[in-house]
Amino acid sequence: MSVHGPMPKSAWLFPLLAVVLFAFVTVLDYTFAPSPAGLLFAAVLLVILFGTVFAAVHHAEVIAETIGEPYGTLLLTLAVTVIEVALIATIMLGEKAVPTLARDTVFAVVMIVCNGLVGVCILVGGLRYREQDFQVSGANLYLSMLAVLATITLILPDYTLTTPGPFYSAAQLGFVSIVTIVLYGVFLYTQTIRHRDYFISERADAADHAAPASGHPLLLSTGLLLISLLAVVLLAKKFSLVVDAGAAVIGAPPAFAGILVALLILLPESVAALAAARNNDLQKSINLALGSSLATIGLTIPAVAVAAYTLEKTLILGLQEREIVLLVLTFILSMLTFGTGRTNILFGLLHLVVFAVFVFLVFVP
Hints:
The chain has 12 helices and 2 strands. By secondary structure, the chain is mostly helical. A two-stranded antiparallel ribbon has the order 1-2. Helix 1 crosses helix 8 (215-250), helix 2 (36-67) runs antiparallel to helix 8 and helix 5 runs antiparallel to helix 6 (170-194). The two termini are 38 Å apart. Mean pLDDT is 82; it is low at 206-210.
């Protein structure tokens, strides 16, 4: 969806369809079941849900052009994080408990973004422009935050002694959640105020002087953004039932649900990041990609932790050994990739290979 020119019909049509669909299943008290009618409902639900997510990101982009960078990218990230928390919490805390979903989704987001999305953006940009530049200082802050937050939320739970197994005790989970939120808050202050220049390219500076949306279009996009986010949250329960049924039919591993949720919430940002790389604005691609990973850990884990504690649900966070190896490899490769300020196609291919290994090991562990 383009943020320039008249608003595309899909930007308001999908949120409207999502609200209508939710009203329909609520009034009829519809319960999804694997059947021909159920498959039709699942197809309609997925199309409307994906369209509504894209609509939400479109309206966030319209607002983002008004407030400028890096606030615009931050708004996009926060909008997608709201969708992510809703989907994870609904599935994980539903009738069929899935205590590992938050872990699987966060890990999938990190692997998809830091390897799949970053790899494609660098490869596409390298093929088109040979090399691309970005702010090393900003990338280093992203990676430093990711390394610390991923370690204390996804690796450390395997090695604590208060409770056996890959999860924190209530006190540990509360402490880690508070630390995570504080760190993310300080990062936002650094990104938007203290060192804003670390995250802005010359292209973004020029774009800040472009005529932003104002008046009626801005108010309309703000209202439709809120409606889109609410619609996704309301349909999250039905989506969780479709995911459970689909995974049972194809015999998918438990981590499949986490990958599916991650793909749903990352698709709009991925399109925006890829478009930025094609336009030779790799800095915006990095902001979108690494920013979404950071928000996933910094905001999603504490939010899901509060929900799990309130509803007395078990929250498993610790990764298995092979997943820890992939996570460490990802951070080492990312530090080398973003350590010089210039990228080429080989870096992109390396990230894509690690992503392929991740996907393969999900189905062939």
